[in-house]
Amino acid sequence: MKRFLLITGLVVLFAAEILRVYFIMPFPGSQSADTVSFAYWLATHITWIRIVALAFIVFPALHYIKQGTKQTKIALPVILIFYAVVFFFINYRFEADKMFYQPKQKLFSEAAIDTTNKNSLVIGIAFNGEAKAYPIEVIGYHHQVMDTLAGEPVMVTYCTVCRTGRVFSPLVNGKRESFRLVGMDHFNAMFEDETTRSWWQQATGEAIAGPLKGISLKELPSKQLTLQSWLAEYPSSRIMQPDPSFKEKYAELKNYDKGTIESSLEKRDSASWQPKSWVVGVLHNNVAKAYDWNRLEKEKLINDSLQDLPLLVVLEKDKASFHVYSRNVNGTLFKFNLGKDDFITDENTSSTWDMAGVCVSGSMKGEKLQQLQSYQEFWHSWRTFHPNTLKYN
Fold first, then answer.
1. Which of 61, 94, 127 corresponds to the end of one domain?
2. Mind telling me which residue stretches traverse the membrane in this protein (predicted)?
């Protein structure tokens, strides 16, 4: 009986510590199954699991240390010391928020004096007369940056393993919430709120475990494009600067923008419709559609429709900045063609439009196309979180 209690307690102790991290970090096989509920249960009950397991161990351990063989008296302390080492590394080294830290200081530069490479990809947000740009190779390490824009709190997030940029309001039930990176589910970053300890999915903003399960954060409009293209549209934008404390961490994301980074989890698949192929995703009235990036590079401009929404997908000549607009202009369905020097023309009136969706010449001059929320991400991410997605063919 003593032997059974000892072995059972040790197995439970080690298994609970290891599985608690295994299911929410990118270990082989850990991200393919729907295990987030079990992972959350483990994380929530880990203290009691430890107490029960230790209770199983204490009495037989004392017995074997006093009366066991020489080998047992040596092996048992070694096993317990090994557990202490496992406990330390899992709880103080391998947890997500011990590996990826928030900026110690949020630094911004005015566009006129900014030295950021203008070809850098950014997540741009703008409203109420203020605009900011967040370079992906900076925020990609942090995963989330809490900030304010025009006096409103914003949560700028990015998951490099899914290539998903999202901006949310951090207000939960009217209260400004704080979040920490807790791990990942299906290779997508998860955040834990400080108040209820619920787990939130980065790609959708939905709470997928905990007391707030089923509630979603309000998503705020954002765009992914090069800094140069963003500044062409918002010349007074401020640009987030690298925090000097994390210089080496940022260096690890070098070439992430281009998809040629060395990391196997983040490097682009060049062929179409492969797990890490790039797609542009659009969601409208719960109907999702994906556009192959390779095809977009070839065609540069796509007139399409999603349910009752006529839309335009266009790629700038930098082959990095993309836009998705509604083709419904004042109740009229427009069709567009690619013009010269990053301009587009409509067949309806032969007016000319710039890449920001503004008509710059012709009878429609001054009109602006409605921007539609869209994302560039890995195909494995888009199809996972939009399992019924359509594919543009």
1. 94
2. 39-62, 74-94
